[in-house]
Specification:
This protein has 397 residues and is of the alpha+beta class. It contains 13 helices and 19 strands. Strands 8, 9, 10, 11, 12 and 13 form a six-stranded antiparallel beta sheet that branches. Helix 12 links the parallel strand 18 and strand 19. Helix 5 packs across helix 6 and helix 11 runs parallel beside helix 12. It holds the Pfam family ATP-grasp_2. It comes from Pikeienuella piscinae.
């Protein structure tokens, strides 16, 4: 689960990390009051969307200007004016795709007198099953670009969970970033705060980019991005309360309510599969036969008729879907349950695109019989290759 920058900074503040004073604005008429509550003389106005690259992004609407989603202003009035220009408009960045995201929140915060920009992140290293730090002197840039062009400027290390975070970890970060004087001590303290936040809140990513040293020589968190392990949210109702459903794909949101593993893609063939591995193989074979999958959808091993029906509804709600491939291997999941769900869903929502069903495993004959007797215009696939070839041919003609 992702949260907004202003929410991440509130969490950082709760753990004692140094962040700027800021106000969140959701309505244009609130902007002037929000900006007036801060000292200035610089006010930074930031669009709040779940995507990076906001500063270099562009608004679709001409009236929003071409300054991007992060703007530096020098008066309360100017800050309020820039906030009003952003609200309700669509910001396109390299992470949003061409559709962009609508800006429903704007964050106004005090400006900082920047001397150096640095990079600092914590994430879960799947190779070592430990929390790892990524540190670089090249702050304010995409870390992927730094890794590709100047990998020697990146330091990565893991923290042994047996010992936990120690002062020497902070000193290692400070020396890698070239910090001096009081900034070293501040960095050691900050590393401990970030590690505590990361582990206590079950984060999967905590990125400070940039981490700055200001003209006074103090370390400061200028921007923040946080992701959380969705499987651990049941024990963090305070994090769940930060969820912004307007930032999520409507189909993915609906799928999560029925415990379906769904990810929207850009293709034309909708997929309904049981098992993540089989779902990946199904997507691959669709590409092999010359088309593109419109989604990843794993209904799981214990799906019910209602769950399958809902999965089918989600697939058909995508206007880009020109055909559907149902690929089920009945181990824990029974083929007759899938067949009943498909039939019920088609009868409820209608079938306006070609549908190919490939069933194999437990109660496969019963499943095929249910579909055959349904009177639906459904093609049957003898195996995965045959099913993929048929649906691609039906879609592409």
């Amino acid at each position: 689960m992702n949260i907004h920058e202003y929410q991440a900074k509130q969490l950082l503040k709760e753990y004692g990390a140094p962040v700027s004073d800021g106000r969140i604005v959701t309505r244009a008429e609130e902007a002037k009051t929000a900006a007036g509550g801060m000292d200035g003389p610089i006010w930074v106005v930031k669009a709040q969307i779940h995507a990076g690259g906001r500063g270099k992004g562009k608004f679709k609407e001409a009236s929003a200007g071409d300054k991007g989603g992060v703007r530096i202003t020098k008066s309360v009035g100017e800050a309020a004016d820039e906030a009003e220009k952003m609200l309700g408009r669509t910001l396109v960045t390299h992470q949003t795709g061409p559709a962009g995201k609508e800006v429903n929140r704007v964050y106004i915060e005090d400006g900082s007198d920047i001397d150096r920009e640095l990079y600092l992140a914590l994430l879960v290293d799947r190779e070592t099953s430990r929390v790892s730090f990524i540190v670089s002197t090249e702050g304010g840039m995409d870390i992927e670009k730094v890794a590709a062009e100047t990998p020697e400027k990146i330091l990565t290390f893991s923290v042994d969970p047996a010992s936990g975070i120690q002062p020497f970890h902070g000193r290692r970060v400070a020396f890698a970033l070239g910090l001096e004087g009081k900034a070293v001590k501040q960095c050691v303290k900050l590393i401990g705060q970030l590690y505590q936040l990361f582990t206590e809140k079950d984060c999967s990513l905590l990125e400070i980019n940039p981490l700055i040293v200001n003209k006074a020589g103090d370390v400061h968190c200028l921007d923040a991005k946080m992701n959380f392990d969705s499987n651990a949210l049941y024990r963090h109702p305070e994090i769940m309360a930060l969820r912004d459903e307007s930032e999520e794909d409507a189909k993915e949101l609906q799928a999560s309510k029925f415990d379906l593993n769904y990810i929207a893609l850009d293709g034309e063939i909708g997929c309904m599969v049981n098992g993540a591995g089989l779902a990946m193989a199904t997507m691959d074979i669709i590409k092999l036969y010359g088309s593109e999958p419109a989604n990843f959808l794993d209904v799981g091993g214990g799906a019910t008729k209602d769950k399958v029906t809902e999965a089918f509804k989600i697939i058909t709600s995508d206007p880009h879907v020109k055909g559907i491939l149902v690929n089920i291997f009945g181990g824990i999941m029974r083929c007759d349950v899938i067949a009943e769900g498909v039939v019920a869903a088609v009868k409820e929502v209608g079938l306006k695109v070609p549908l190919v069903v490939r069933l194999e495993g437990t109660n496969v004959e019963l499943g095929k019989e249910i579909i055959a007797k349904s009177g639906l215009n459904v093609l049957s696939g003898d195996d995965l290759g045959d099913a993929a070839e048929k649906i691609v041919k039906a879609v592409r003609g």
